[in-house]
Amino acid sequence: MRTEQGVLRMSIAATVAVAAFGIVFGLLSGSFSIVFDGIYALADAGMTVLALWVSVLIVRSVQGAPKGRFARRFTMGFWHLEPMVLGLNGVLLIAVSIYAFINAIASILNGGRELEFGLAIVYACVTLVACFGMAVYGWRANRSLRSDFVALDVKAWLMSGSITVALLIAFLIGYAVQGTAHDWIAPYVDPAVLALVCLVIIPMPVGTVRQAMADVLLLAPSDLQEMVDRIGVETVARHGFLSHRSYVARVGRARQIELYFIVPRGMAAKRIEDWDAIRDEVGEAVGGDIDNRWLTIAFTADPEWAE
């Protein structure tokens, strides 16, 4: 629980176990909703592996560890890969859910399917404990890590747990109506609950995809822009500059900030150390996680260099 990579590795192992368990029990019980649950978990595990790889690259690049040809091709770091992975993860989960929803509707129109409810109930109970257990594990770890990858992983476990709760309720209902006057409902239980679950979970990754797209497109967060502009105005007033220009973006866990200060023509010369002292002053005011901050501060008498 001490590192982002450790939490993601644990999640990957648990996800693969749950996915394999689901696919086997789904085939044995004849439940497409359980098979979908397993495939959903397997897809999530694949994306978590990709997230882990990106996380390792980012941490190593911050620590100056990457060497060789690969690192030379990414001289500006690996932060931009993070929103790409998050966006791809969200899109993939949405696509899998839409596909399952279409199959569920087709099954209902074809008269449903027979299901071994006893095995299905056992699966749902075991998986429910695993899903919410991993969600709590990830949530506790992320209180200190504050990782977008871990946060998305926790959301995925909660989504899987919610799916399992719905499946368990439906399986219990189907088990209860067997041999009664409502026995005709039983074949429709599995595809109906699958359709309902898909309708619920399809919108859930939308927020993550939207934020990932904003990061990929380098949209300037309003709060970051306002803070940097405030610091720029204060610095201009304090040092007698003419104005400033600022450019900011959030890229995954990183903040990219460029500040240009327009100085008066003919301003008295300063030593390099003096300009660096101003940079240190601005950097301290900006604050934040300096390991995941790309801060450029420049001074010029020609405004065109800052445009």
Automatic annotation (TrEMBL):
Keywords: Membrane, Transmembrane, Transmembrane helix, Transport
Keyword Transport recorded: yes
Taxonomic superkingdom: Bacteria
Keyword Transmembrane: yes
Main location: membrane
Location within or outside the cell: Membrane
SUPFAM superfamilies named in the record: Cation efflux protein transmembrane domain-like
Chain segments annotated as transmembrane: 12-32, 38-62, 83-105, 117-137, 157-178, 184-204
Membrane topology category: Multi-pass membrane protein
UniProt domain Cation efflux protein transmembrane: residue ranges: 10-213
Residue runs in coiled coils: none
Matching Pfam families: Cation_efflux (PF01545)
InterPro entries: Cation_efflux_TM, Cation_efflux_TMD_sf, CDF_Transporter
PANTHER family from the UniProt entry: MITOCHONDRIAL METAL TRANSPORTER 1-RELATED
Protein name per its UniProtKB record: Cation transporter
Organism of derivation: Mycoplana rhizolycopersici
